[in-house]
Amino acid sequence: MTSTPEMLLTNQVWPVMLTPMHSDRTIDWDGVDRITDWYIDAGITGLFTNSRSSEVEFLSAEERVQLAERVVKRANGRAAVVATGTFGAPAADEIETIKQISDVGADAVVILTNHLGNQAASEAAWSGKLETIVEGTGDIKLGFYECPTPWKRVVPAPVFEWAAHTGRFVFHKDLSFDPGDMAAKIAAARGTDLRIYNGEITSTYQSIIAGAHGHSGYASSLNPHLMVWLCANAHRDDEQVRTVQRLMSVFERMIGLGYPSSAKQLLAATGQLDITPYSRMPGANPLGAHDFDSLTDMVALIESLDLKLN
């Protein structure tokens, strides 16, 4: 069962999915099923796998396809699924990878903007490779992710407008951290199917009011219920909305140490998911009590506030 086109275009929260692993750092496929269910049970209807938080840079080519396929099958139409399909290879190879990810059922395949050329690549070379990929992938729905590692490449507004009007692009995870840049993209995409999701939690509700479509980031792995509520109620711009955004802004910054191991460790310790903290991300190791206790304190603080969301 596949998701509906409406689900792809109308949901507001796209968590960058964590990838559960065993202690030997192999993928825990049963854990992938559990975390997929956990997101959906929290009200999530859009899943972004093969993201940086999924440790995509440290998965094999085969594992990337397998992971996308597993999430699609487990979601079983309950949520739309997008997955990264470009990893810095020549355009012909990127085209084949995008087709592979699409063939296993992803609703859209995401292009890492910084993988369309090296850091010094000219805009002409960068956009030329993008055009080649778009032309070579038929009618497959596509997306952008302004991934911050190993360097960040922000999509220029003219290229963004071109992409929006191809009718092929439906997803954009924005990491410009620039309200002016995001406003230009919102204007460029107006009237098209290209949806803009802020990757910065500190300005999420403001960007939705300005015309963006929601949030895609790891705050949604810390408390998906709150993120679903925040994006659904952003236009209220009241104290309750501002309080939830402040809480999630602080929480997301706190989880940065040892991420994504820290997030996996927290979800297990708080009884939300049966997963291990292990990760392939360099430097991401389980936290000791000195660093970890503050995370469980944050969970307890949010619960104690009894926000009574309405």
Automatic annotation (TrEMBL):
Keywords: Lyase. It comes from Pseudonocardia nematodicida. Its EC number is 4.1.3.3, 4.2.1.41, 4.3.3.7. SMART domains: DHDPS. This is Dihydrodipicolinate synthase family protein. PANTHER family: 4-HYDROXY-2-OXOGLUTARATE ALDOLASE, MITOCHONDRIAL, DIHYDRODIPICOLINATE SYNTHASE. GO terms for molecular function: 4-hydroxy-tetrahydrodipicolinate synthase activity; 5-dehydro-4-deoxyglucarate dehydratase activity; N-acetylneuraminate lyase activity. Gene3D superfamilies: Aldolase class I (3.20.20.70). Belongs to the DapA family.
